[in-house]
Amino acid sequence: MDCTFPWAIRRPSQPKRVPWSTHIWVVLLSLLGGLLGIGGALISEVGSGGILLGVFIGAPVIEEAFKPIGVYLALVKWPDALHNQLYIALLCAAAGLVFGILEAIVYLYVYVPDHSARFKLYRLTIPLALHAVASYTVGLGLDRRIVGVVNRGDPLPKRTRNFYLAAVAMHATFNIGVTILDVTNVVDFD
User: Fold this and answer.
1) For labelling alongside 132, which of 90, 98, 158, 166 has CA 20 to 30 A away?
2) CA 133 to CA 136: how far, in whole Å?
C-alpha cells in the first residue's frame, strides 16, 4: 500500500522570487541591447554596400537578431527573472523602440539633415512602431533555450525560428513598401 503524506505531495514549481533590483538591471540591459543593435545595423549597411537586396533583406535579418542582445544577455545572467513570455516580449519591444529612436536620430541629423517636418513626423512615428512590434514578435519566441543554441549548439527551437522569421518578414515588407511608395512618388518621405 502506498501511503503519502500531505507535505510529501509535489506541487508545480513556482518561479523563484527575484529581487526588484534584478528586474531593474534586466530592463536596463534590455534597453542597452537596443543601443547595441545599432552595431548590427552598421554591419548590414557596410556589408550590403548600398545594394538594395541588403537593405530589403540583410538589414531586417541582422537588425531583428541584434536588437534583443540585452535580452539574450539577461537570459544568461538572470534566467529566473525572465520566466514570463509576455515580459520577455515587452523587454524586446522596449529594445526595439530604443533602436528605432537611435535610428531616427541618425536619419534626422546625419543622413537627411535638411529634412521636412513631414519627414521628421514620419521618422518619429511609423518606423518606431515597426521596430517595437517586430522586436516584440521576436521576443514571443525567445526563452532560456536560446542559451543552449549558443553554448552547446542545440538546434534552434521552431518557435524561436518562426517568430524571428515573422519579424524579419514584417520588417522586410515594410522596407520594400516604403521604398516603392517613395520611388513612385506616392508618398514623399523627404
Assistant:
1) 158
2) 5
Asked if residue 93 lies in contact with residue 135, where contact means CB atoms within 8 angstroms, the answer is yes
User: Can you tell me the distance from the alpha carbon of 150 to that of 52, in angstroms, rounded to the nearest whole number?
Assistant: 30
Distance CA 133, CA 167 (A): 8
- State the Cα angle at 142 between 67 and 31, rounded to 5°: 35
For residues 80 and 16, is the Cβ–Cβ distance under 8 A? yes
Query: Are the CB atoms for 90 and 132 separated by under 8 Å?
Result: no
Q: Where would I find the beta strands (DSSP E) of 10-152? A: none
What is the full per-residue pLDDT of the chain (190 aa) written as tens digits?
Answer: 555 545 445 555 566 788 889 989 999 999 999 888 887 777 666 655 555 566 677 789 989 999 999 999 999 999 999 989 999 999 999 999 999 999 999 999 998 999 999 999 999 999 999 999 999 999 999 999 998 898 889 999 999 999 999 999 999 999 999 888 988 988 876 6
- Domain locations in the chain as residue ranges: 19-183
Q: Which residue has the cell 539633415?
A: 113
Angle at 71 between CA 69 and CA 73, to 5 degrees: 70
In 3D space, the residue among 102, 95, 117 whose CA is nearest the CA of residue 27 turns out to be: 95
